[in-house]
Amino acid sequence: MPEKLAKDFVLAHHYSASYPSATRRFGLYRVDAGEPRLSGVAVFGTPAGANVLSRALPELRPNIEALVCSRFVLTDACPGNSESWFLARCFSELRATGVKGVVSFADPVPRRSADGTLTAIGHIGRIYQATNAVYTGRGAARTLVLLPDGTILHDRAAQKIRKQEQGHRYCEEKLIRLGATVPRAGVNPAAWLRDALEDIGARRIRHRGPHRYVFRLPSNRREREAIRLGHPPLAAYPKAPDVPD
Fold this sequence. Notes:
This protein has 245 residues and is of the alpha+beta class. The chain folds into 2 domains: 3-141 and 209-226, 3-Layer(aba) Sandwich (Aminopeptidase); 146-204, no CATH class. Helix content is 30%, strand content 24%. It contains 8 helices and 11 strands. The protein has helices at 3-13, 52-56, 82-96, 126-130, 155-163, 168-177, 189-200, 221-226, and strands at 24-30, 37-45, 66-74, 101-106, 111-112, 118-120, 134-138, 142-146, 152-153, 203-207, 211-216. Helix 5 crosses helix 6 and helix 5 packs across helix 7 (189-200). The N and C termini lie far apart (39 Å). Pfam families: Mom.
């Protein structure tokens, strides 16, 4: 599906309120009311960390034979089986283009905005469990910057501001909307970011790492099992979100 249409839907409906780097985008349309209505989007592409794919699926070519599922969001109006049906259709399309493995993460940490509104419920990857993904533990633990609206200022966004890279204005404008002062001409971007985060009351929270799931896409069982995993599979799926600090 078109990039802008996918991006607008994800920004409107995904709790992260952010859109990742994408190479493949799929849309789920409801047609029960006659006119097709976009009701879900799945985004596959390149992860922020260069080693995410090579460590999880070491024998597959990153970004060619292996992709990360970075956004998967459906509206509440979709029927109960829509998630698994949509995911299976996406995998069928990816398989036809030579993709053999997909890595996906579930963020188990609930988050609230400064006024106490729950903005992220804490996901354990139930849809991935229901579709028989291989659970391989957690991704890297890290410290996150939590903004007053309950969203995260990701490291890549902060880097864009510090280095004034493409997209920095969008990241700066978000902080300004949250109460940061407009940067003066000639101000050091790194110093402005530091002061802006302090001014708006951003908090740092410790994250134990997202749950990592791996899908091996070949339809033949022998071919699936021949794809080596870089992390040992774990027998038990996680059953509850993390307790926030």
